[in-house]
## 1
Amino acid sequence: MSARRDEPAANAPELRERVLDAFRDLLRERTFESLSVAEIIAAAGVSRASFYFYFAGKQAALAELVRRAVGAGHQAAQPWTEPGTAAPVDPRAALRAGIDAGATLWLDNAGVLRAIVESWGSDPQLRELWLGQMATFTAAAAERIQADPEAMRRLAGTDVTAVAASLTWLGERLYYLAACGVPPFDDRAVLVDTLHHVWISTLYPGG
Amino acid sequence: MSARRDEPAANAPELRERVLDAFRDLLRERTFESLSVAEIIAAAGVSRASFYFYFAGKQAALAELVRRAVGAGHQAAQPWTEPGTAAPVDPRAALRAGIDAGATLWLDNAGVLRAIVESWGSDPQLRELWLGQMATFTAAAAERIQADPEAMRRLAGTDVTAVAASLTWLGERLYYLAACGVPPFDDRAVLVDTLHHVWISTLYPGG
DNA sequence: GCGATGACCATACATAGTGTTCAGTCATGA
DNA sequence: TCATGACTGAACACTATGTATGGTCATCGC
């Protein structure tokens, strides 16, 4: 039915990719809100009609970029969320590794993630996407906590899900501030150390 | 020079107040971004020209509302930031009182505060305002921590300012989620307990 | 080769919002 | 009675969004 000239099948339309690439590049230096569709398509070398053929709007394109970025995010946090296959790792070290991987993810995708953090409040689609992501991380963290007798002993009598959600959102905020270059979190070492410190204090205060 | 008909002096122009009141009311149920100047002036019963005479735009009006709301905020946190005049209060109890006062402040001014949290990322003026506020709270918290030998013993070797900033931003985020009705923080008891728990764990882990 | 198909583009359009301008109204105070 | 200053209403230029139209061009079946 379609007139294809390259790969035999399952080839994501090239224009679509070009738009997403250009959009991601622009977001590295520009605000989502300040970007117009005109600028995006100019950078992508694509017509206005094509853009609206592939995406319902700016938001929809951003949503796609976010989905791709956080897809990698799940793997990033895995060292801590899925306790080592064989050797029982020190939870503190695993946690630090997860936090560090999160920092890498955020800095690599700073533009896209900054954009959704600033936009999910005013767009239903983006809100659902982001709250869903946070809920996923929260659930993973809560599960990991509940599997840890030491942590559970400390948290006795408190709402584990709420604590897990707090720590998740603390991460979101600090990573975001780092991506915005707000001190003192623009210093990656400070960011990771501080986040790690609060998580550890909350979960394993015995130290 | 001006033709006044009421109070003798220092009378803030009535139209300006009407705009601010209407704006605050609208923000209780609507998003800042989704509100147009047309709607605001319609609700206020004021002409477009008058609006732009008193405010440079939507953002400037919001900034004014935020300044007024957080003016009260400084007092709200005072029980903890400025240790009691005479009797040495239990820092944990004082902290809880401060957190609870913060919750009251946020719920009273939910619309305005939600608006700035969602907008400071894309407006230089609002950014400066909000980051300044957070810096103020952070400084107060850091000072309070440094005055407390018990807390300082625990935090030995870590960046106190960074920890104070983390806890400040954690508060910002959790209060915001509560104002948005995001579970589990839409439950005020959970909000206050969890925030209190993380602060205490981080600062006074001895229990 | 020939016509159909579908991807793509340029242009134009309707709609909506922003911020400015300007002529005009109306109460007050001199 | 006139001048002043607060305020309005309407129009304007500009920018952005999302849609609709007509046309180009490569490819495919035949």
Note: Residues 58-81 of chain A form the longest helix (24 residues).
## 2
Amino acid sequence: MSQEVRVRFAPSPTGALHIGGVRTALYNYLFAKKQGGKFLLRIEDTDQARFVPGAEDYIKEALDWMGISPDESPWHGGPHGPYRQSERKSIYKEYAMDLLEKGHAYYAFDTAEELDAMRQRLTAARVVSPQYNSITRTQMKNSLTLPADEVKARLEAGEPYVIRVKIPRKEEVRLQDKVRGWVMVHSNTLDDKVLMKSDGMPTYHLANIVDDHLMKITHVIRGEEWLPSAPLHVLLYRFLGWEESMPTFAHLPLLLKPDGNGKLSKRDAEKHGFPLFPMSWTDPDSGQVADGFRDQGYLPEALVNFLAFLGWNPGDHRELFTLEELVEAFTLERIGKSGTKFDINKAKWYNEQYLRKKSDHELAAYLTADLKKEGIQIPQDNAEKIVSVMKERATFPADLWKEGRFMIFAPETFDTQVAEKKWNADAAKVLTAYSEKLEALQEPLDAATAKELLAVSAEECGVKLGKVMQAVRLAITGVGAGPDLMQVFEILGKEELIKRIGFSLKTLGIAG
RNA sequence: GGUCCGUUCGUCUAGGGGUUAGGACGCAUCCCUUUCACGGAUGAAACACGGGUUCGAUUCCCGUACGGACUACCA
């Protein structure tokens, strides 16, 4: 019998979700759905000092926007709640006591200063890595060194203490990681990590093991930064008697900065002008606003596709995947091992691809929304026509309006470079003739007619159409590049064209 | 420093003991075209290095170099 696959994404609410965290969430989601299992979200808020208001709402909104909402979470609830660690405080204590009783953990009363002094002493003695371990714990104030009655007295007196794990002196700890294979470390390189803090909260190490077990998590998919502490986690499963049901681990390669090396940071994002967060985030302390992918015009389906390919690939040559297709194709086995540099160009390319897949109807909504901000209203069918000719050249929805301004506003100035090179008396002659033909036209202008009339006008003036085409474009749009001119003409309509021709003839002159 | 992890075009990557080392982004050129863009075609561009193992290694093993993560009463 195969048990239900259950995975979790476990962010701590310390601010906006980092894009790397979003990818971790996505991989968890993809794996869960592929396996027909559950994707849960657990808030790891055991560090009260780092709690940031609004962060949890942000996480929820970001995942919803990406289309990867969890099945169980603080806000959806579920059979294994609560899903906020701060609300599970009493649970952890119970397991810490269990560890204490079994001799796998002990009380420690050392103050921060004493800890510091120990590290300094060790550093001075040229100990390579000063840590609280099987050697040093014999010289510290803990329930291993202090007489039992003193420990009891200190506890009863309410003296602050932590509970530390007692790492065995000599043991090989192995774990099989789904992406790295076998990883082996010696327990003597591990230190006696704090399990329960003096404020009564568990540390990540205890909390994540207890919760994963209680929440019946089958696979732990998380960032590579957790790999060094994974052996400790294996040990904890063993000490708690849960080794049989220990989840499978998969440590994801890190997201690296685009140039040079190192973990992707906010600094890099700013330097290269791309966001680091899925959505904009306002720091509640400084009030500083950091831009997000959503705000810069990235489509969620593009971001999902892009992120999925940062460290994973389907093994064939397909590049474009919907969320559903990703679910279908996803396997842990195809996750790469090495760190991945963040290339925003590729993200833009994905955005273009998905933008072009959208219907004119959907795209028109972006345009009308932008226009509304400027107090402009245009008919829906007009908006749809505009986006249909503009979408091939847009990366972001906002480009529809930015690049297509001339579709609504007549040019007030003309690109001087193009004017110098292309504007001449021939162009003025042709346009004058063209304007007259448009005046005489009874029915509404369509692209084919627009072209025919223009061709006739050129012929009458004894000018080759190709020679003046750029000048015509300049006269109507003000610039030298843009979508198919005749389509533009059709959208503009003859009255608007006549007006624009009149203005450009006046402004650019008829002699050239 | 220590522990762990990694290394195929500039980037994301496929591949795997014998291949013209494949694709995508970006770049260049050409075609399409009234321009730009789209699209199409073509091109430049990679197995970090040194030892093994082997008839043969980019692929397997070991080193070296380089890079990264971790090294908190943070997660």
Note: The longest strand of chain A covers residues 172-177.
